[in-house]
């Protein structure tokens, strides 16, 4: 019988992983299964509704079955914890599955979170700890750094509105690509938008207002569209440099060399590239074979939207259909949001213990 996502074998594996994390000084914590939906909706937008279970409480309003542990752990740390700190946890998380009925909607998640300290050293510690905990399994590591892409966007020679829009959609690759192509004048403005912007008064031949937006709100939106249409396009050079970052797919040392070349023409990514170099040195000092470590410029852009730096995952080497066995990354900006302006460096990772059991026993 295949080990279930909540069975005895899975719970035993969760306990093994938890003991490893506690052995590094991590404090074991727990969080409520029902979380305030407004916090998660503010962070992720309405997209989270497609991936989580939402219910209503007559006193507390909308509540959400815990989709992961990171957000509640960060909230608790920013309210009560002191830096540096390490936490670990194990418990159920809940994810809606609308396209794959074979994937569980409830499963155990075991995690390790690190707050404070030197970012490069903390990144290396979390990655190496999870790699060692999964040693002996037929897994393929993957790494990336969303911070490099975000730094490139911040450095573009364009309006703050455009940079904000691109930054907001970093985790939506198709939307990000559509915006980049539009801002770079790679695609023409749609005919209906051209016609709308050409009207002196869009309401001149319009009927009564229908919907929730007032005429003033519609006029303000049209003014924004006109300002955007009059903004000069991104240079072809800058768009090509963004494309070069997204297309990176090599071993980490080779990627580092390519990024140093890109930084000559795009100095805004310089600090992020230095951070990558320091992280690789810290990983090597912990025994990670960085010479063969894969790096992808787009890795981590379809996960939950709080990673803003180093990202990593461990996948089955031959079963691409399986979910990742472990994922993680850096989320400094999340601490600033939940800390009401106070931020601390933070990085963490989670493991799916039922997948560890399946792979170890050759049942994957």
From TrEMBL:
Q: Name one GO molecular function term.
A: glycosyltransferase activity
Q: Name one Pfam family in it.
A: tRNA-synt_His
Keyword set for this entry?
A: Glycosyltransferase, Transferase
InterPro entries (alphabetical)? aa-tRNA-synth_II/BPL/LPL, HisRS-like_core, HisRS/HisZ
Query: Span of the secretion signal?
Result: none
Q: Which Gene3D superfamilies match?
A: Bira Bifunctional Protein, Domain 2 (3.30.930.10)
Q: Where is the Class II Histidinyl-tRNA synthetase (HisRS)-like catalytic core domain?
A: 14-352
Name it: ATP phosphoribosyltransferase regulatory subunit
Instruction: Tell me which domain of life the UniProt entry assigns to the organism this sequence originates from.
Output: Bacteria
